[in-house]
Amino acid sequence: MMPLTRSLLQWLRPVSSGSVERRLGPAEAAFERGHYLEALKLWKRDSQNGDAEADYRIGMLYAKNQGVVGSIPDAAVWYERAARRGHVEAQYQLGLIYLYGANASLGPNRPETWRQSSAARLGDTASNVHHLVFPYGTSVAKDISAAFRWISAAAEAGKAEAQTILGNLYSEGQGCTKDFAAALRWYQAAADQKFAPAEFALGDVHYQGRGVPVDFAQAAIWYGKAAAQDHVRAQIALAFMMLKGGAGMPEDPTEAARLFQSAAAHDDPIALYNIGLLRLGGRGVAKDLDRAETALRKAARKDYFPAIQALAEFYSHGADAEPDLREAAVWYEKAAERGDVQAQFFVGRFHATGVGVSPNIRQAAKWFERAAENGHATAAFNVAIFYLNGSGVQRNVEVAIKWFERAADGGINAAQVQLGKLYSTGVGVPKDQEMASEWLSRAADSGDPDAKTAYALFLLHQDASDESVARAHSLLAEAAEAGHPPAAFQLGALKMGKFGGTADMPGAAPWLTRAADAGYVEAQYMLGLLHLDPKSGVGNAQAASSWIAKAARAGHAAAQFQLAVMYCTGAGVGLDLAEGVNWYEAAAEQGHTVAQYNLAVMLGKGQGREADVTKAMEWFQRAAERGMAEAQVAVGDALMSGRGIAQDRDAAVNWYQYAARQRNEGAVRRLQSIGATRDQAFTAETETLR
After folding, report:
1. 524, 547 Cβ separation under 8 angstroms
2. Rounded Cα distance, 505 and 507, in Å
3. What CA–CA distance (Å, rounded) separates 602 from 613?
4. Average pLDDT over residues 128-151
């Protein structure tokens, strides 16, 4: 056996041209000058004379594509010649080739591409030619037995790299029976040569207790030896141990940070991620958001998933700086594409709300559905709403129900409530009050105040029995006591007799007040009406005007209308027609029909505001189009007279007829005055009723 006396790096080290042949010999000197074909010729001559080193070096030429067409199969043939002659490095390289296999490379000017192309065009002829050019093929199949045999030979000869890999093979049972004791012996043999990967492997053996008792202290010693040689994985392993402490090792975040930083200098993504986290929190190292962001970004760009997640969180929350939601959206989407369920939900929410991205309801639906398919219950509820409303997807109530059921099974009470409402109304499913009751009851049993309120309303609308009313009262009281304003409002409405039974106005007031104080606008309006009624037992004009004004300012159209009436009549407030017109206009803009009509009347008469017949006509028309008979008569009168609008007798008659169909006596009289009989005035209505 010819011992290997030089490493590959030593072979490739530049030397002065005058001494090349004296020091290396003719073949090596030619190789050093880059004359690979000459080196090949000389090494082939030496090979014929039984020189194992020459065989090995020819194998390297094929492996590195130097002076010959690169071919791992050809390299394997030459390595095997050298290996059989006892060449240790050749044994090791051959073992690696069989351990991992070598697939044929595809691409321009690649032998396998040429073979496939030629075979398609020329058939057997091409195969024969290819065999002549590449007699050993273009790939090498994995062969664990052969790998074990050749790596064992190199290990027996003392090669530390081979000894370490042989330890791995015994540890994993590849090409041999799993044998932790044998693995330990080979790791130790390589570690005795101060080979860092073997020292790291021994650290793992003691840390995991593979064939020996778990011994963290011993593991730390071996990790430390490898780390001192700049072994990245050992530095990371030791850093984690020092970060956690325990098992006889003191916690040392400063040393952990140093080790992570050392490993990060090699661009290791795990190290980059962890030093980034330490810099974010200022643990073991000075807090530095800029350097933390840089480290996390480097790790994320290497597709390290935890770093992608951390960057998304960093930009989302800001971490002592302003959040950057655009950047957050970018990294959440990367995490989402990698299958992170929570990230998929966040991306859906970003697209739904337009946070960090342009609003895109279709994208929102897509990401919510992906998250839902991966078991995210809230996403399932959201996508159910999308299908129910046809937002971003084709409306499909059946699919919506499927997702509501998924969300409900995931504990989303709102989904259970939705299912109860759908079965109660028969939307998308057969109407089934028993099923509705089951879902709503299940939701209410969870203790959710909104679910209790929904179930109570279901009971009140479905069954007027004393038992149901009592149950509903109990549910509403529980939810209201838990601070749920809608429940307090509904309890107040129940006591006012809105669901039947004896009204208790004084008993309603405290519950309505609770809801109103919490900002529940409908309760503010209802409470105002209660105080406005002198027969309620809690009449209070000042309180009435205060609550109705609050609801009106919150945009409640009915409250705006009521406040206008109060200002125009001086009920509970000082008489102020101008303020009354303002509130009529606010309610009218929201489509309140009577407010539109009253506003038109006041504008037409110049009450509270300068007269504006044209504007009055516009509001009469809007109220008329919403079906108000009085407004239809007013429009007809204007068309007949040409006041505020172009005169048009036929159009006026049409509006009178619309109003007459609603049994409006004024419209009937106007039609009679222009020649229609009373029976003719009601003809259209009769036809409609039929």
Report:
1. yes
2. 5
3. 10
4. 82
CA distance 543 to 572: 9
DSSP state of 405: H
Tokens of 671: 């039609």
Query: Do 245 and 251 form a contact (C-beta atoms < 8 A)?
Result: yes
- Cα–chain center distance at 216: 39
d(CA 400, CA 405): 9
pLDDT tens across 341-373, in order? 999 999 999 999 998 999 999 999 999 999 999
Alpha helices in 518-573 (DSSP H): 521-532, 541-553, 557-569
Provide mean pLDDT across the span 7-33: 57
Paired with 249 in beta bridges are: 246
Residue 450 to residue 415: CA distance in whole angstroms = 11
Is residue 203 within 8 A of residue 226, CB to CB? The reply is yes
257 — phi, psi (to 5°)?
A: -60, -40
Q: How many CB atoms lie within 10 A of CB 617?
A: 20
Question: How far is Cα of residue 86 from the mean position of the Cα atoms in its chain?
Answer: 58
**Taking the complete model, does pTM exceed 0.70, yes or no?**
no
Cα–Cα distance measured from residue 538 to residue 520, given in angstroms and rounded to the nearest whole number: 20
What band does 117 get if pLDDT is binned at 50, 70 and 90? Answer: low
List C-alpha distances in Å: 215 to 203, 209, 212, 247: 9, 7, 8, 8
Q: Which of 396, 440, 398 is nearest to 416 (CA)?
A: 440
CA angle 506, 512, 516 (to 5 degrees): 140
Q: Which residues lie below 8 Å from residue 335, measured CB to CB, with a gap of 6+?
A: 305, 308, 309, 312, 343
Dist. CA 617–CA 442, nearest whole Å: 54
Token reading at 584:
């009529």
Nearest to 498 by CA among 512, 484, 485: 512
Binning pLDDT at 50, 70 and 90, where does residue 133 land? Answer: low
- DSSP 3-state assignment of 649? helix
| Phi, psi for residue 158 in degrees, rounded to 5 | 100, 10
Q: Which residues pair with 246 in a beta bridge?
A: 249
Element (H, E) at 663: none
Look at the block and give the residue holding tokens 């090995």: 56
Alpha-helical runs (H) found in 5-87 = 8-12, 20-24, 26-32, 36-48, 52-64, 72-84
Other C-beta atoms within 10 Å of 331: how many? 23
Instruction: State how far the Cα of 301 lies from the Cα of 310, in Å rounded to an integer.
Output: 12
| Statement: residue 85 has pLDDT above 80 | yes
Judged by DSSP in three states, 392 sits in coil
Task: Retrieve residue 545's tokens.
Answer: 């005007």
The torsion angles phi and psi of 102, rounded to 5 degrees, stand at -140, 105
**Residue 86 in tokens:** 């006892």
Q: CB-side exposure of 292: number of CA atoms within 13 Å?
A: 24
Q: What are phi and psi of 249, to 5 degrees?
A: -110, 130
Sign of CA dihedral 609, 611, 615, 617: positive
How many CB atoms sit inside 10 A of residue 553's CB? 14
In the block, tokens 């064992």 appear at 152
Q: Read off the tokens for 665.
A: 């006596």
Q: Virtual CA dihedral for 368, 369, 371, 374, nearest 10 degrees?
A: 170
Task: Give the pLDDT confidence score for residue 131 in this predicted structure.
Answer: 54
Q: Which two tokens stand for residue 225?
A: 């030896």
pLDDT at residue 11, rounded to an integer = 32
DSSP annotation of 105 reads P
Quick one: which of 34, 30, 32, 303 has its CA closest to 43?
Answer: 30
Q: How far apart are CA 345 and CA 353, in angstroms?
A: 12
**Among candidates 391, 341, 340, which has minimal Cα distance to 365?**
391
Q: Report the C-alpha gap between 118 and 324 in whole angstroms.
A: 56
Structural tokens at position 33: 């000058």
Measured at the CA of 508, the angle between CA 506 and CA 514, to 5 degrees, comes to: 115
